[in-house]
Design brief:
Rossmann fold, 344 residues, alpha/beta, binds 1,3-dihydroxyacetonephosphate, 17 helices, binds iron/sulfur cluster, single chain, four-stranded parallel sheet
Length: 344
């Protein structure tokens, strides 16, 4: 039995001055993100989670849109959806805590069926995943017989199970091309679909799903960042085609980070969820970030106290029935076999 649990079943970790020297490196890295008043609140949780994580032999995986105290403070693996899927498939720990949204935890469970996969908040959803059902996919297949279905990973396991292959924003173009057909049903993100269509000769039959965060960005915002701040512009392909036409680079959350490492612009505006800019600012202190203020409400449901409770109580366990997990795994493994795209 974990001594932290034995002594008190529901402890709230306390601040003690030793934490400041123990986490001096983290505090230095996150200077400018976490105001000093937050440290006495955050460090006890960070320390308690790191202790419990070691005792449980757990691996914490965090998406690029997680808050900096999670991304830099407790995660063992960080990155885009593709990196998290790959890490789950390769994971040698028996316990995975997925700090991200539900489809990411489901993907981890499908690719690592023998492991326990936990998500700190079961309600962490996604507007894209909610936009389409397995029945909708069967309807599309009936309407377009013989046309393969490529699903963005931002879908439920049941939708993946109806798909020929999955993709992420890191390899959508490559997965569509690998189908080898003149037409592909691409779902559910109509903006990512439009971006992929602009990069291939394949005709894409699209679904009307959108990311509730990225659909809000406007051409005027992009132009304002360029004209007002002389910033380079980098965007996620879930933005509208009109916004993407304004920017210097389009890529997955990991690809954006790799682009910054390569190009080292003096000033950049990230047209994507805004935690990403906080996480990257800690990684690239020489770059000045103009950040938007749009947070994904689903990603924000994951907090340090919820991660702690999740590890302490081993909840919420993600499960996927075998009849769905098996075909969904085939679609995901096809995606992993194709790998990242050139710019992914
Ligand atoms: P990435 O695959 O680029 O990490 O994006 C996932 C996502 O949900 C973006 O909104
Ligand atoms: Fe879904 Fe958009 Fe949130 Fe990504 S940012 S998880 S696509 S709602």
């Amino acid at each position: 039995m974990n001594p932290l649990l034995e002594s008190n079943p529901h402890p709230v970790p306390n601040w003690h001055p030793g934490l400041e020297s123990k986490y001096a490196e983290l505090m230095r890295k996150l200077e400018g993100q976490a105001v000093c008043l937050d440290w006495p609140l955050q460090l006890p949780w960070i320390d308690a989670i790191n202790q419990l994580k070691r005792q449980r032999g757990a691996r914490i995986m965090a998406h690029s849109y997680q808050a900096p105290e999670i991304f830099h403070g407790v995660a063992d693996v960080t990155g885009d959806s593709f990196a998290l899927a790959q890490a789950a498939a390769d994971c040698d720990a028996d316990l995975i805590v997925l700090c991200g949204v539900h489809f990411m935890a489901e993907t981890a469970k499908i690719l690592a069926p023998g492991k326990t996969v936990l998500i700190p908040d079961l309600e962490a959803g996604c507007s894209l995943a909610a936009s389409i059902t397995a029945e909708d996919v069967r309807g599309l297949r009936a309407k377009h017989p013989g046309v393969p279905v490529v699903s963005y990973v931002n879908t439920s396991a049941a939708v993946k199970a109806e798909s020929d292959a999955c993709c992420t924003s890191a390899n959508a173009v490559q997965v569509v091309a690998a189908m080898g057909t003149p037409q592909v049903i691409f779902l559910p993100d109509q903006y990512l679909g439009a971006y992929v269509a602009s990069q291939t000769n394949v005709e894409l039959l699209l679904w009307a799903g959108r990311c509730e965060v990225h659909e809000q960005f406007t051409v005027q915002q992009a132009r304002h960042a360029r004209e007002q701040f002389q910033a380079k512009l980098v965007a996620h392909p879930e933005c509208s085609p009109a916004v993407l036409a304004e920017v210097d680079f389009v890529g997955s959350t990991s690809a954006m980070s790799q682009w910054l490492a390569r190009e080292q612009p003096s000033r950049v505006a990230l047209i994507t969820e805004c935690s990403m800019a906080d996480n990257l600012r800690a990684q690239f202190p020489a770059i000045e970030f103009i950040k938007p203020c749009k947070l994904c409400p689903h990603m924000q449901r994951i907090t340090l106290p919820k991660i702690y409770a999740c590890l302490r109580d081993l909840r919420h366990q993600v499960s996927v029935p075998e009849t769905i997990a098996n075909p969904a795994r085939r679609a995901l493994q096809r995606m992993l076999a194709i790998g990242r795209g050139e710019r992914g």
